[in-house]
Design a protein that fits this description.
Elements lengths: L4 E3 L2 E4 L5 E3 L5 H5 L1 E4 L7 H4 E3 L5 E4 L6 E5 L3 E11 L2 E7 L6 H4 L3 H12 L9 E6 L6 E7 L4 E2 L3 H13 L7 E6 L2 E9 L6 E10 L1 E9 L13 E8 L3 E6 L8 H8 L10 E9 L6 E9 L3 E3 L3 H13 L8 E6 L2 E7 L4 E6 L2 E11 H5 L4
Parallel strand pairs: 9-10, 11-13, 18-19, 20-22
Antiparallel strand pairs: 1-2, 2-7, 3-6, 4-7, 5-6, 8-9, 8-25, 10-11, 11-12, 13-14, 14-15, 15-24, 16-17, 17-18, 19-20, 20-21, 22-23, 23-24
Enzyme class: isomerase
Organism: Coprococcus catus
Family: Belongs to the diaminopimelate epimerase family.
């Protein structure tokens, strides 16, 4: 064991065979000290305990130098906030040395961080948190967490913004590249103006849509909202990597979507959560072209301004039910704006839309409450 060095109110130790041991503290001081492992291999109160001699023992698997932090100190994290049609997420760059350590945290810690940062009044405010991390299979790996801390398999608006960020920051120097997600590898294309000066949109090959079948659910509602006198609605289930349940209705704005989503979440098969959409296929009076109007309640985030996977799911369902055709572009209009989708005859779904930066900055985490499991 190498000798520890005292500096102001901090203690530094070098590791020895996977165990770091601090010098003696009295009981009061020891109770106020927390372990912080900057290398990302250790996590505070999980690995900190007081032995009988009132010494602090910190078990770790690495040999890096570690810092002891006192309660009340903050950890400062760099972030970028972006949105696609108002569907806003906080992005953390695992390629950036400032963020390589949080990127290595386990899912439990990342989910807790997502809750803290996503709060609209006491955090940054967002629909969730997305990590952009190195990948051996693609340009980068996208790891997504909803605002409630649950992990999401895929996010259409999120992957577009992540792709834009990766291109702008040199993670990929090509306009076409691949992204690894929990739903598999996805191909993206960063579209620029003819002059090549500005990015106009990002297109994503969302893969194959899976038809999970139809169901009829009872929902007490006004008669004009449904063609069925018993108040029931036929719903279509679709998997885009995420599970979706779609109501085709006459009036999207008036439909009680929140109430419908609460009901859907209680049905068998939806125990792990499901995104719920209300949609209507309408026509442009002058041209006769069809478009889809849509609202969504997302699992883990509530009603959002837009949902990319939801737009894909609704488009697929509209084709299956004969409202739209394969291989044609469809505008999906949501409160946050318009996405363009195309359901190809080979079963793949293309989705394209804009991306925007909101701001970037630093977020200070209260060390003690965060690692003590307090949200």
């Amino acid at each position: 064991m190498k000798k520890s060095r005292r500096k102001d109110n901090e203690l530094y130790f070098d590791s020895c065979n996977g165990c770091i041991q601090g010098s003696r503290f009295n009981e009061r001081n020891a109770a106020e000290v927390w372990c912080h492992c900057p290398c990302g291999s250790d996590y505070f109160n999980r690995h900190v305990y007081l032995c009988e001699e009132k010494e602090i023992n910190i078990r770790t698997n690495c040999r890096n130098m570690h810092r002891i932090m006192k309660k009340g100190e903050n950890m400062r994290l760099f972030f970028t906030k972006m949105h696609g049609l108002g569907n806003d997420y906080i992005y953390m760059d695992g390629f950036d040395s400032r963020m390589s350590k949080p990127a290595a945290w386990p899912s439990e810690q990342k989910g807790r961080l997502a809750v803290m940062m996503s709060r609209r009044h006491t955090g940054i405010g967002a629909d969730g948190l997305i990590f952009i991390q190195p990948s051996e299979e693609a340009a980068f790996r996208m790891e997504m967490y909803n605002a409630d801390g649950s992990r999401g398999a895929m996010c259409g608006n999120g992957i577009r913004c992540a792709a834009r960020y990766a291109y702008d920051h040199g993670i990929s120097t090509n306009q076409s590249f691949q992204v690894q997600t929990d739903s598999g590898i996805r191909s993206v294309y960063v579209r620029k103006t003819d002059e090549g000066e500005h990015i106009t949109s990002v297109r994503v090959d969302m893969g194959v849509m899976a038809n999970l079948g139809e169901q009829r659910v009872l929902l007490k509602a006004k008669k004009e909202w449904t063609d069925f006198t018993d108040g029931s609605f036929p719903v279509q289930y679709v998997s885009t990597g995420n599970r979706h349940c779609i109501f085709f209705v006459e009036n999207v704005e008036a439909f009680p979507l929140k109430k419908a989503a609460e009901l859907i979440h209680t049905l068998p098969g939806n125990e792990d959560g499901v995104n719920v959409e209300a949609a209507a296929v309408e026509k442009i009076a002058v041209t006769g072209e069809k478009y889809i109007k849509m609202r969504v309640v997302e699992r883990g985030s509530g009603e959002t301004m837009a949902c990319g996977t939801g737009a894909c799911a609704v488009t697929a369902a509209a084709v299956w039910q004969g409202y739209c055709r394969y291989d044609e572009n469809v505008e999906v209009r949501q409160p946050g704006g318009i996405l363009t989708t195309a359901y190809l005859a080979d079963g793949r779904m293309l989705m394209e839309g804009p991306t925007e930066y909101v701001f970037e900055g630093y977020f200070d985490i209260p060390i003690a409450s965060f690692y003590n499991g307090t949200r």
